[in-house]
């Protein structure tokens, strides 16, 4: 693992940092308060190559690798986690299509994601009664001639109301994890209905909806991968997605620490800046150590994935540690701000709310511990 960034990685990081500070951060508070999703913003990110960081250049991607992708997510998350999660899911969908799609599927759908034509991508796996257990999903797909017909419901779908390209899981046969298949569904397809926008605790600038499929007919050639291998595709996508969430957690935590440093330097108590007291200084020292540790775990997982090596355990370790770290750091940031940390005039209350979901989506902390334990026992079997 080389801790020195390459020229390409530095370029992606600096590009993401610039747009995050100049374009994303200024609208973050309003997006949160008004639950505002901005399609125009994601088209701008696409123009900068951030909607396909790890996708081949022939499909409009930046072809910059997984570490560069992680860096980009961190920078955007420090400005607005709502923006970064939609960007991350789009990249995840693109990577899945690139890994398992036919050449025709890649040529048709990847340029739409990388160019911003599709606005964003969506990942439709969870259902009202199937979250941590994909094998419990009820959505079905039945082959009828040259089509697949989908029926069922999905829940907690990020960007579901705006996504032009979605990867959707449905049961084609069997029970449990067997018999699941993945499909590419275009936004606006007849029979696809978008549910209400969820009124969330955090990530309020991110669109989250339920989806209903009622005799939703798609071409047979939009089966992604092989029939019955959907569970495998989901696990591959989630492994990579956990690197994205770990990166998001690092970015949000870093923003919370930076806000705390600024505030405690300006705020005075007992005739001196709060930053001069040992208690707050020690708190921020601990915050910095935890962020640095999470970043290293995240870069380790990203490096392994980039090298084509197994990274399941490392991705879960990064996601578990970084997400729980972000919750601790944001909690400390609110505490350091005192009463001001509890009002929306200061950004740390938004960071606190945004961080909370990071221990839940892309696999809860409990699921990560199951994965880590399973992979650890394999080492000694």
UniProtKB/TrEMBL annotation:
PROSITE patterns according to UniProt: ACYL_COA_DH_1 (PS00072), ACYL_COA_DH_2 (PS00073)
Classification via InterPro entries: Acyl-CoA_DH_CS, Acyl-CoA_Oxase/DH_mid-dom, Acyl-CoA_Oxase/DH_mid-dom_sf, AcylCo_DH-like_C, AcylCo_DH/oxidase_C, AcylCoA_DH/ox_N, AcylCoA_DH/ox_N_sf, AcylCoA_DH/oxidase_NM_dom_sf
Keyword list, A-Z: FAD, Flavoprotein, Oxidoreductase
Annotated TM spans: none
Acyl-CoA oxidase/dehydrogenase middle domain ranges (all copies): 122-216
Annotated ranges, domain Acyl-CoA dehydrogenase/oxidase N-terminal: 6-117
All residue ranges annotated as the Acyl-CoA dehydrogenase/oxidase C-terminal domain in the record: 228-375
Cofactor(s) listed: FAD
Superkingdom, taxonomy of origin: Bacteria
GO molecular function, one term: acyl-CoA dehydrogenase activity
The enzyme's E.C. designation: 1.3.8.10
Chain coiled-coil ranges: none
Family: Belongs to the acyl-CoA dehydrogenase family.
PANTHER family, per the entry: ACYL-COA DEHYDROGENASE, ISOVALERYL-COA DEHYDROGENASE, MITOCHONDRIAL-RELATED
Protein known as: Cyclohex-1-ene-1-carbonyl-CoA dehydrogenase
Source species: Stigmatella erecta
């Amino acid at each position: 693992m080389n801790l020195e960034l390459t020229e390409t990685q530095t370029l992606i990081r600096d590009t993401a940092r610039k747009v995050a500070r100049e374009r994303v951060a200024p609208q973050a508070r309003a997006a949160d308060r008004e639950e505002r999703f901005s399609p125009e913003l994601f088209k701008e990110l696409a123009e900068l190559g951030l909607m396909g960081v790890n996708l081949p250049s022939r499909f409009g991607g930046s072809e910059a690798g997984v570490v560069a992708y992680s860096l980009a997510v961190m920078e955007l998350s420090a400005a607005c986690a709502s923006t970064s999660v939609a960007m991350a899911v789009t990249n995840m969908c693109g990577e899945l299509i690139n890994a398992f799609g036919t050449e025709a599927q890649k040529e048709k759908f990847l340029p739409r994601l990388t160019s911003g034509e599709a606005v964003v991508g969506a990942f439709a796996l969870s259902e009202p009664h199937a979250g941590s257990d994909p094998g419990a999903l009820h959505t079905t797909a039945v082959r009828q001639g040259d089509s697949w017909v989908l029926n069922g419901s999905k829940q907690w779908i990020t960007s579901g109301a705006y996504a032009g390209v979605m990867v959707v899981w449905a049961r084609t046969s069997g029970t449990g994890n067997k018999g699941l298949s993945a499909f590419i569904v275009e936004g606006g397809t007849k029979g696809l209905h978008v549910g209400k926008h969820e009124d969330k605790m955090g990530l309020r600038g991110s669109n989250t909806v339920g989806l209903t499929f009622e005799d939703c007919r798609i071409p047979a050639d939009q089966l992604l991968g092989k029939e019955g291998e959907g569970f495998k595709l989901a696990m591959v996508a989630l492994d990579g997605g956990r690197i994205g969430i770990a990166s998001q957690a690092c970015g949000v935590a870093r923003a919370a620490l930076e806000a705390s440093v600024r505030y405690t330097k300006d705020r005075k108590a007992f005739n001196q800046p709060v930053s001069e007291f040992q208690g707050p200084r020690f708190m921020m020292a601990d915050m910095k150590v935890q962020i640095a540790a999470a970043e290293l775990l995240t870069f380790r997982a990203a490096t392994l994935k980039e090298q084509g090596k197994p990274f399941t355990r490392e991705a879960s370790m990064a996601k578990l540690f970084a997400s729980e770290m972000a919750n601790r750091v944001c909690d400390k940031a609110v505490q350091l701000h005192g009463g001001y940390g509890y009002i929306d005039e200061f950004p740390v209350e938004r960071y606190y709310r945004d961080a909370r979901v990071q221990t839940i989506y892309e696999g809860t902390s409990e699921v990560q511990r199951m994965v880590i334990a399973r992979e650890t026992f394999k080492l000694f079997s």
